[in-house]
Amino acid sequence: MLDQTGVDSRLPLYLQLRDQLAAQIRAQIWQPGQPIPSETELRNTYQVAIGTVRRAIETLVAEGLVERTHGKGTFVRKARFDNSLFRFFRFESADGRPLAPRSVIVSRKTISAPPRAAEVLRLKPQAKVIELLRLRTVDEQPVLAENIYLCEQRFKALAGMEPAQFGDLLYPLYERECGQIVASARETLTVETVTAAQARLLGLKENTPVVVIERIAFGSDGEPLEWRQSRGAASKFRYSAEIR
Amino acid sequence: MLDQTGVDSRLPLYLQLRDQLAAQIRAQIWQPGQPIPSETELRNTYQVAIGTVRRAIETLVAEGLVERTHGKGTFVRKARFDNSLFRFFRFESADGRPLAPRSVIVSRKTISAPPRAAEVLRLKPQAKVIELLRLRTVDEQPVLAENIYLCEQRFKALAGMEPAQFGDLLYPLYERECGQIVASARETLTVETVTAAQARLLGLKENTPVVVIERIAFGSDGEPLEWRQSRGAASKFRYSAEIR
DNA sequence: TAGTGGTCTAGACCACATG
DNA sequence: ATGTGGTCTAGACCACTAT
Fold first, then answer.
1. CA distance B153 to A3
2. Residue with smallest Cα–C1' gap to D9
C-alpha cells in the first residue's frame, strides 16, 4: 500500500500517508511554494481511498506544512514564520514608515552545551553547540539582544561560514544552509532588570526593566532545533496571544 | 432536512448542523459535562449522512465546545477555562503548597461606557456598562488589580447581587447568573510603571514595573463579553504561548 | 456484549480557478 | 472545458468503554 520508508505501519493509514508526504516535503522533493500532487494522483500512487488522502492532507494543513486553495491545488508552505518575534516589539519611526530590523552577529562560538541548553535541545550533557550572540537594530539603534543555541551536529554549516554573511533573518538561513525548517515554537515571557553587560549592548541605563522572551523552535517532526533568549526594553514591548 | 431555527441554509450542511448543535449547547439543552446524542442518533434525527454528523462534531471539538472520548461519547465541555489568567503569575508559598487565589470586589458601578470599552465590547458610544474593580490576593497579599467591563444588558443580574457573593471566580458566575459562557479570549501584554493609586492597591513602591494583561473574552458565537485589564508586579510574571 | 467514536472505502456532485 | 479542492452519501469494519 504505502512503501515502507520508515513509516510506522501500526499507525492509521492516513497518518502513514501524512508521514510519507511530510518526509517528501522535508526532503525538498516538493519545493516550498510549489504544488504537491493532486488528490486523484495521490490516490493512484498510494492506492488508498480519496477520503484517506484528504484526511492526510488536512492534517498537514493543521500542522502548517501545506496550504490549500480551492480550484488551484495544495502548496508547500514557505516558512514566512520568521521575523514573527520581532512583531512583539513595537518600533515606529517618527513618520510611521515600516522599519526593517537589522541584525549583527556579535559573536559565534562552538562550545559544549550549558546544562540548560542541553536539556532544552535534548542533547547529551557535554554535546557541542553553536552559541550566537546577536544584536538587532532599528535605525542604527540597538533594540534586542539575543543568545541563540543550536546543536552543532545539525547546524555544522554555520560553523564554517562568515557570520557577516548570515543576513538579517536566521530561519531562512537555517533552511538554506542546513536544511532545517522551523515549523512551530513555544515562547515564555518574563521580566527582569538588565545586567550591566546587556545594558551596554542595548544602550540602556542600569536597572531598566527588560522583557525576556525565551523561545524554543521546533522542526516539523517536533524536534527542538533552536533555543533562543531575546531581551529588549520592557517599555517598547507588546505581545498578543489567543487563548483556546 | 434541518429545521430552520435561524440557521443559514446557504451554508454547507455540516455547518448548518454545527450551528444547530451549538445553539442547543448554548441554550443549555445539553448541560456541561453531559453527553450529546450519539452519531447514529443525530444521523436519524437530522437525516444526514454519518460523515456529515462527524464533520459537524469535529468542528465543535476544534472550537472547544465539546470533547469526544472514544468508547464513551461526546460531551459538552465545562468552562474550566477560568482561572487561566492566574497561572501567568507564579506565586509559591515557602513550603511550595498550591495556593488558592482570593478575590475581593473593591467597587462596582454602572456607568456609561468609556470610549475604549464601548469599542472593544462593540456597544453604542453611551451604552451602560458594569465596571468592576477587583483585587486578587494570595495569602492575604494583594497580587493583581483588575478593571473589568461588562455590557449591562447581558450582565444585568450582577447589578442586583451583593458583590461579596460573587466568589473567587467570575466566569462560573457569569455562566450561572447570566447564562454567558466564555469560550475564548485574546490577550495583549505590555509593561508599564505603576500609577500611584495602583501602587497603593498592590502594595508596591512607586515606579515599580507592572505587567498589564489586557484581555477580551468572547462567547462561543464570537461576541465580546468582557474587557479586562489586570496589573501585577512584573517581577512575579511568567507567560507561555505556542506559535503556530 | 452492546454502544460509542475512529478509520476507511468508493464513489457522486458541486464550486472555484485557469486557459 | 479541464482540473482542482469542497461537500455529501451510505455504508463496513475496527477499537475502546462500560456492564
1. 61
2. B49
What H or E segment, with its residue span, contains residue B170? helix B170-178
- Which residue in B57, B30, B28, B33 sits closest to B43, CA to CA? B57
Kindly report which amino acid residue has its CA closest to the C1' atom of nucleotide D4.
A71
Stretch B150-158: mean pLDDT: 96
Residue A241 is nearest to which of B81, B241, B244, comparing CB atoms?
B241
CATH code, domain carrying A40:
1.10.10.10
Structurally, how many domains does chain B consist of? 2
Between positions 97 and 136 of A, the ones with CB within 8 A of B are none
Q: From the CA of A58, how many Å to the C1' of D8?
A: 17
Q: What is the pLDDT of residues B112-129, one digit of tens each?
A: 999 999 999 999 998 999
Does residue B93 belong to the interface with chain A, where contact is any CB pair within 8 Å? Answer: no
A216 touches chain B (CB under 8 A): no
What is the span of the domain harbouring residue B206?
A: 84-236
Residue B22: name the closest of B40, B6, B38 by CA: B6
Q: Summarize pLDDT for B63-109 with one digit per residue, the tens.
A: 778 999 999 999 998 765 545 555 566 665 555 555 678 899 999 99
* Lookup result for grid cell 490549500: A68
What's the whole-model pTM score?
Answer: 0.75
Enumerate residues 149 to 208 of chain A having a beta carbon within 8 A of any beta carbon in chain B: 183-192
**CB distance B208 to B194 below 8 Å:** yes
Whether residues A68 and A176 fall in one domain = no
